[in-house]
Fold this protein.
Amino acid sequence: MFKFLRDKLKNVMSAFSKKVEEEISPGEIKEAKAEPKKEAPVIEKKGEIKAPITEKILPKKVKEISKPEGRKIAEPKPATEKVMKEAMETEKPAVAEKMAEAVHPEKLEKLRDELVKEETKPEKRGFFDKIFGKKEEGKKGILEAITQPFSTTTLSEGKFENLFWDLEVILLENNVAVEVIDKIKKDLKSRLVGVPLKRGDVENIIQKSLEESIENLFLVVKPDIIKNIKSKKPYVMVFVGINGSGKTTTIAKVAQLLKKNGYKSVIAAGDTFRAAAIQQLEQHAEKLNVKLIKHKYGSDSAAVAFDAIKFAEAHHYDAVLVDTAGRMHSNTNLMDEMQKIIKVAKPDMKIFVGESITGNDCIEQAKRFDYAIGIDAIILSKADVDEKGGAAISVSYVTGKPIIYLGTGQKYEDLTEFEPKVLVESLGLAG
Ligand code: GDP
C-alpha cells in the first residue's frame, strides 16, 4: 500500500535535507569537527604534550597563561586539585568549562600530569577526549558544544520555495490535492524558515513535519457505524459512487462486518440501471446469506430502497444497505435520482465509495456527490493496489468528511478500519 509514494518521499526528504544542510557553512563545520582530529594530543613522553592542544582548544585567555616560560611552578593548592578532579571525573562539560575559565599555569601543569595518567589507562576517557568531542554514546564534546552555534544555519524563504519544489512535484505526481500540498508546505515552512537548523537534524524535522501535517488532515470525527446501529432500528445506509468503484463489493463487505457483529441487515439492489449490478448483489447476498430486496431492471431505485426499509421494519432487521446507480458523477439525471433516493430513504449515513487508485478523480467525485446529496463518510476501495496514496491523503481534508474504512482486497474480510496513524506508517513517516 502506497509504496511508490513512500519510496519517493524517502528520496526527496533526503535530497531536501542535504540541500538545506549544504547551507550550513562547510568551513565552520570543519572547525568544529575535522580540525580537532588533526590536532589530537600526542604524548611523546610522560608529562609532555604537544603545544597545539592549548592553542587550538582552550580559550585565548587560557592560551596566554598556559605558556609559563621561565616561571616557577608552585605546588598545587587543595582547591586546584579539586577543580582538576572534577574535570577528570565528571562527564559534564560545564565543569570543564569552569576549569577552562579558572585555570592557572600551575593548575594546567597539574592537569597535564593527570592527563598522562589518564592516557595510559585506555579504558577510561581522557579529559581531552571530552574537549575534542571524541564521543561516548549520546554525549557531546566540549569543543562541539562551544562551536555548535556556528554550525547552524537559517533558511531563507526564497531558498525554501526552491527546495520545496521537488517535494511538491512528488506530491502532485502522486495525486495529493493542491489544498493538501499547501498545508504541508505551510507547516514545513514554519519549521524550517528563519529558525536555526543544525546539520544532521534537518531530515528528522522534515519527516516529523510531514507526519504531523498528514495526521492533522484527519481531525474530523469518524463515525462508528457498528456503535451507531444500536441507536436506531433499522439503521439506513445509502452507498453512492461511480460504476466500477467497488461499491457492490463494499456493500457486501459491510454486510459481512455487520453479520460478524451480530446485526441482521437487508440489502436493497438500488442500481436498477445495470442488470449486472442486480445479479452481482444477488450473488453476494446468497454467499453471505443476507436478505436482498430487488425490483426489475430499469425500475425506480427509490422504490427499491423504500421496500427494503419497510421489510426491515416489519422483520426487525438492524440495518438496510442501499446500493445506487453509478453512471458518471457529472450526469445530472443521476444526481437527481440520488436526491430522490435520499428524500425517500432518509438515510442515517450516506457513504461515498471511491476508488483509491483514481487519485484526483476520486476526490473530484467525492466533492460532486457531497455537493448533490451531502455525504457523511467515505470508504476508499482498492487501497491494497494503490501505490500512490494521494486520494487517501487528500479526500478527507478536501471534503471535510471522514474516511471510515479502506477496501484492502477482494475478499469479504478485506475491509480495514481507517486509521491516520496507519496511513502515516505506510508512507514511512511514523517517528
Ligand atoms: P461497482 O461497479 O462499483 O459495484 O464495483 P464492484 O464492486 O463490482 O468492483 C469492481 C471490481 O473491483 C471487482 O472486480 C472487485 O472485486 C474489485 N474490488 C472491489 N473492492 C476492491 C478492493 O478493495 N481491492 C481490490 N483489489 N479489488 C476490489
